[in-house]
Amino acid sequence: MTDTSICLRASIPVDQRLALRTATVRLADDFAGVYGAETIERFLHSSYDQFASASASTVPHFLPLLAERFARQRLTALARVEGLRTDGRPVVLFLCVHNAGRSQMALGVFQHLAGDQAVAWSGGSEPGFAVNPAAIAAMGERGIDISGEYPKPWTDEVVRAADVVVSMGCGDACPIFPGKRYEDWVLDDPAGLTVEDVRPVRDEIERRVRALLAELNVPAQR
Questions:
Q1: Angle of CA points 100, 1, 69, to nearest 5°
Q2: What is the CATH number of domain 91-215?
């Protein structure tokens, strides 16, 4: 545990400590027989530390919830990598720099079209503070709500668990694991653009996601 983690742990407000304990219980139930309390607590608290020291520090009351969601994703990925739990569904990871625009839009489209037939995650090399409002609005026009998403980093277990890694502008910062399928989608960054300007990006993302689903033999539901 780093000095920074120790300081963060000591500074966690009482209400958030209680929320993290509750989150630990929920995660322990979800991963019963897969991971023990020590592993679950380590992933939960490291996830909390990542948000507390970065983008999510602007919304402290939501930190335990964000940490729980991220820890669940990471534990799910680790269990897949270690062969402890897998359901055979393909997993796609969308990566960009801030995880605030393109990768979040791609995640939303993928989940909307694939439903529960496939799994999608997203991450950024330098996570931003919030999802781009213009991206949220443009996606809302398609009936896809990404307002509840949040910028987050990628982790090794999440990348290793993915069958396909789609990068969008993160360049050399994108993690490379031998033998994994990678795609590089060249798309305009929605940062600073109006909703009108984001619409073509959204539509191109949808076209590419549909093509990817077809390649993965996952029928688009809509």
A1: 35
A2: 3.40.50.2300
Residue 7 annotated to the active site? no
Sign of the alpha-carbon dihedral angle for 94, 97, 98, 101: negative
The residue annotated as part of the active site, out of 105, 170, 212, 218, is: 170
Pick the CATH number of 3-81 from 1.10.533, 1.10.8, 1.10.510, 3.30.450: 1.10.8
Spot the catalytic one: 20, 165, 174, 212: 174
**Alpha carbon distance 161, 179 (integer Å):** 12
Q: What is the pLDDT along the chain (222 residues), one digit of tens a residue?
A: 443 343 445 568 888 999 999 999 999 999 999 999 999 999 999 999 888 876 444 556 688 999 999 999 999 999 999 999 999 999 999 999 999 999 999 999 999 999 999 999 999 999 998 999 999 999 999 999 999 999 999 999 999 999 999 999 887 788 888 888 999 999 999 999 999 999 999 999 999 999 999 999 999 987
**Catalytic-role residue among 12, 93, 96, 120:** 96
